[in-house]
Design goal:
The chain has 9 helices and 9 strands. By secondary structure, it is of the alpha+beta class. It has 4 domains: about 5-150, no CATH class; about 175-230; about 240-290, no CATH class; about 295-333, no CATH class.
Amino acid sequence: MPKQVKRVFVEKKSGFDVEANGLYAEFRQNLGIKGLTAVRLINRYDVELESESEYVLARNTIFAEPNVDDVYDEVLPSCAAGRIFAMEYLPGQYDQRADSAAQCIQMLTQKERPEVATAKVVILRGEISDDEFAKIKGYLINPVESREASLAKPTTLDMTTERPPDVDIIDGFISKSPADLRVLLEKMGLAMNEEDLRFCQQYFKDSEKRDPTITEIRVIDTYWSDHCRHTTFMTQVEKVAIEEGRFTLPLREAYDAYLAARDYVYGDKKKPICLMDLAVMGMKELKKCGLLDDLDESDEINACSIVVLAEVDGYPRSFVRAFLCLSSDACYR
């Protein structure tokens, strides 16, 4: 029996629609959209199953919780009066909701894992202009991982991929004059300078004996710019100017606190101001105060690291916890 694509919409009942109410508050407060009167947020599932009975079983046990969810088959009712759009993950991005649903349906039917595609449907009520509607879309859709989804139901969930075109070659690269390289540098907006690009030219001319592709130069430039970003940390800051504005006072106070901490840490030692010094001054001040006994110090200066004790199999063991950024960290034994 051929599989059919079934579509189901799942929306939290009133009183349980916390996420939708949160978006309503964000749109009004963060985006200043005062004409907005209500927001509905619906999870949309498209699934390929062999029978209606399998769909009904999955609909009421996997896709929705009857006590907190309203469920609509195929079509959303009562959305003509508002603005509507849907968003989904880009192809290749991991969709945990779709993957979890597919695994649960496989366990339920004891058959092959079905194809499941998900999207979030947003319905906006109120007086909303086209510019405000576009602003809301831009606020919710991160183009790095997601895109606006079609509202039409597909006939199949099989992904079709087109063969990408061949990568363009920078013709004549290895024989370009310094002036031509300068033009290429500006045209491509590369982070490397002319000397760096000439170095690449010499490499492809002598070692590869061919012109590079655009991708090769872009990849080299990406790593080059990362290297430059690191060296920027040590660039000496000779003059600091704080512009007038609503944050002038707190910025001046923060910078004055940094200068006071430098005086305390370095004393009479002459140490240039740089971004790296600004980043580590808090740590140095705490260390000098004797408040960082658990700091891990090594030759590898890559992240803020502290030594922590963790119980493993009933025994305390030392771990180094490296804080890599504001939102993630890693632990090393």
